[in-house]
Each structure stands twice: as C-alpha cells, then as structure tokens.
Amino acid sequence: AAAPVRLWVKTEPFLVGVLPVQLPARLGPHYLRKIAVYARTRASEGCFPLLSWPRWRHIACGKLQLGRGLAWLYFELFHSLFRRDPPRRLEWAEAEAACASADELERERSQAGAPSRAGQSWGSLRDILTLVFFPLGQLSVDTLQFLLFLYIQQMNKVSLRRSLIGEEWPSPRTKSTSLTGKSASENKNWNDHDHHAFVQSHLSDMLELLLELEQLTASSHSTHSSSVSYEAVCALSFLIEGTMNKSRMVHPLHELALQQPCQGHNGYSKVSRAFSFLKLESWLRSCLMTNPFGMTACLKSGKKLTWAQQVEGTTRRAKIACNTSLVPEVFPMVIMSQVYKQTLAKSSDTLVGAHVRIDRCNKSFIYLLSPLRSVTIEKCRNSTFVLGPVQASVHVHGCDNIKVIVICHRLSLSSTTGCTFYILTPTQPLILSGNQAVSFAPFHTHYPMLEDHMAQVGLATLPNYWDSPMLLCKESGDMSVFCLLPPSDFYTFVIPFEMEGDTTETPGGLPHVYQKALSQREQKVQIWQKTVKEASLTKDQRKQFQILVENKFYEWLVQTGNRQQLDSLVPPAVGSKQAAG
C-alpha cells in the first residue's frame, strides 16, 4: 500500500542556510556530538533547550577554538533564516547601529532581546520552535535546530573518495547542460536531489544528535532500544515537511508524524510521547522523496515566462521559469538562464519574496525591482544586475566582469574575476575561495519604491558593512583579493524606468569621500558649461561644436558598451513575442 504521507527535504535551509564553503573541521560530526552532550548537561546555564549567544560564543571560541567572527557568522546566519517580522529586524538594526565600539556591539548581542510577550499570542507553533528569546532578554536559538543547521554545513564538503573516482571533476559524461540536467560542478545549495541524498545518507547521525542523554551510549550513539522525543521530531521539522497523500496542504514533519495512520509505522507511543529510533528512521527513509516544489520541478513543470527576447542570429535561447503554479505555501522560485545582449527589467508579483537564480547571462542589463528572498548569480559575464532589496542572501559564483547593485542582508562571493559590487548590507560581505580583483563600492542608486521594498524585508540603511568584508578562504591573509573602488572611478547609477513611489534619492546617502568626488565632477561640468557659454561662438561654430561633442559621446557609448544598453531600452516592435509576464 502507498505510504499515507509524502515527505521531502525543505529547500530553504540548504539554499540560504548552508555557506558555500568548506566547514571548519572543528564543526564536524564528532564535535557536534560533543556540543549536544555539553548543551544538555548545562541546561540551566543557557544551553538547552535554547542556546544563548554568550553560551555559543563560549563553546565555539573557548572549546572549539574558532574565531569570534566565525562563531557569530554561523549564529547570525541561523538566526536570520527565520522570517521575523520586518519591524523586529529594523529594531535590531537600529540597536546595532547605535553601538559606538566593538565591545558595545558585543554587549548588545549578549543582551539583545525583545519586548515581553506575556499575555500575547505566540502565533504559529513554528514561532515557538524557531527563533525565540530568553525571558531575561538574551538572544537565543533553538539548540536542536541549531545543531542540525551546523550539521548540514557539510553539504559542500569535498569527499576524497568521490574525488578519486571522478565525481567531483568535470567529464564529457557529466557535462553541464545549463537549465536542464545536472552538472558535476552545479551549486549544491540549489539542487534538491543533493538535499535529498544528503539527508538520506546522514539521517541516522542527525537523529542521534537529537537524542536525550539517557538514550545514548558512552560514545554518543543510539542503541536498538533508543527512543526519539517528540521535541526532537519538532526540531527535525526544520529540515523536513510534507503532505498527507492526495492533499496539497503542506505540514511540518512533527504534525504528520502524529497522524493516526503513521503512528504504527514510526513507533510513536502516546504514553512516553516518543518514537522508536529504528522505526522512525525506517519510516522517514521510506516516505522521503525529492522536493515536489524544488528546482527540478520548477524546470520540468513550472510556468515558462516570456520576459526575455530571443536575439536573432544567435544559438542561445533565454529560458525563464517559475514555480508559482506549483507552490501552495512556500517561497516562490524564479530561474533564468542565457539572457544575452539585452535589457530585462521587471517589477512583478512573481518576484516578491522569491528565490532567484540567474545563470549564464552575458552582455546584458537585468533589473529585478521587487523585494526578493535570495539571489544566486552564476557563470555570468559582462553584465549588470540591479536588484530590489534581498531579505536573505546574494551569492555570486563563477562570474567575470559583472556589476551587482543591491541592498541585501548578506553577500557572498566565490570564483569571481574583475567584479564590482555596489552594496548596502548589515553584515560583512563574505569573500570565499577563488576570487580575483573584487571591488566594493557604496550603494549608489534608487527607484521610487525602493524604501517601501526595504521596509517589507526589514532592511535599514544602518549598520552598513559594505567596506568591511570577511575573508573565508585560503587567501584570507591576502587583502589584495579586494579593493574599495577609488572615488575617482565612482559615478551614480540612474535606473531608467518610471514607477510610482516616494523614494527620490539613494537611501542613507553616500560616504563623504564619494560624495565629494561627485561634487567635484559636477563642479567641473559647471565650469565647462560656463566656458562654452562665454566663448561667444558664432552659430556655425556652435553647430560644429555640437557635432564634435555628439561624435565623441557616440564613441564613448560604443567603447563602454552603453550603446547596447540604450538600444535595448527601446520597446520591441509591435508584434514582438515578448510578453509582460
């Protein structure tokens, strides 16, 4: 008989929760088991069931010898996964921005809390099971979920065995096929098959991490009689969700596990409020399937969008798909590939809160002017990307000579060459491995709805760490991997579209040295205009002078590639196949 439930691994924890970098060895499974035991034995000290930032800092820095910056990175990354109310995010940003020193910031992180919720509704069970605060106000996270979060950071670990048999290296058999098929070097954070395989391969280890002390052997492993608490299964809902058969309503794992038809299969006991370890593991394995709302389903069955024109005379075919027609109550997903030699501009409900993947675009200008959940830009060249505020993360990989203009919670880069990032971000940009000639500059543009979109995703103008990247790579001692864009090369960016809204200038303004450079340039223009006016040219001389200036301007447009952008801004002719979408 068919299983009464269908379960799958959630995309979001892997997509925006797993750093695309090798996990420090001291956060491997052996040490996570030690952390789990340590936390449970110190429940009264702020370690369990909630782990406070001061206690995690003690474990990470004092026990595991990790740097404080890295300890905060993992804690804050997990913390930011959950969709707190935007006003709460803005309150935290205001408190952090008010700190005048690193010590004051650390005290704020150690004491940060929220107004008492006594007498108020907690809302959904997910609110209780995800991010909460101690009554005393210390910032804290769910201990068991945080352990699972640290465990799945192994997703990008390179296996020596797989390297030896060739699975980690490209070959004709595994040649990339862009939007369809799987590449050996494909971003695992997006690949739902990899998520499913990872959980299936490591399910036993993850369940053992969640066991109570009396259910473990001296070496922190399970026995044939071990049981898994209901609270542990609630924690596993961080990674797994599903539906009852023939239903489109998505439920967290712990709700499905208590359904009457499932209890006989997963070994649930109403007396002990716990599950048999062996039966639960077997039940999970038998019910787990590939995510029906993930990237694979989006490409296979998602709605095809005709946002991009097909450029004549090229074999490239732009492909854009979304899964909004498939998804009942999860984040939408938009995937675009091979946009070539054109300007694509959208502000659409399809994009609001979406995970966006942009792949293999070249010589294009892409404007996505809506509040987004996350953005991944891969293998793009010679292009400019102007993005609406991104609530979670922007990851750029394998790109050459691109510009990214964005306000985002987090930015990470790997294997990029000659790219420039005009950013506003409340966290340090992460420079991972393989980057060359990275340039950072302050965010320098606006569109009418920008501040409204910032408020929707809970992003403020301060704090802003655009100029303070963190290097998480073997070149971490080599600060020449990046530079700050010289003010002499800095120009503001004008978004050439009309929209309704109230934003009329760059949010937060510009740093003094960049504003000064713009003012000096503007002053030179005014002096030039005055010189021309006072030159007393005849009518013929003015005409010749105008032709000369226009020719020089045209040469500049061609040399800089701006001619192509201006041409692509012209609306397509009547009868074009391009649709509004």
From TrEMBL:
User: InterPro entries, from UniProt?
Assistant: C-CAP_CF_C-like, CAP/MinC_C, CAP_C_sf, CARP_motif, TBCC1, Tubulin-bd_cofactor_C_dom
- Provide a GO CC annotation, any one: spindle pole centrosome
Choose any GO biological process term that the UniProt entry carries and state it: maintenance of Golgi location
Q: Which residues form a coiled coil?
A: none
> Which top-level group of life is the source organism from?
Eukaryota
Protein's cellular compartments = Cytoplasm, Cytoskeleton, Microtubule organizing center, Centrosome; Cytoplasm, Cytoskeleton, Spindle pole
Q: Which is one Pfam family of this protein?
A: TBCC
The alphabetical list of record keywords is: Cytoplasm, Cytoskeleton
Q: Where does the C-CAP/cofactor C-like domain lie?
A: 328-459
Coarse class of the protein's main subcellular location: cytoplasm
Q: Does the record bear Membrane in its keywords?
A: no
Q: Which family does it belong to?
A: Belongs to the TBCC family.
Task: Please report the name of this protein according to its UniProt entry.
Answer: TBCC domain-containing protein 1
Q: Which gene encodes it?
A: Tbccd1
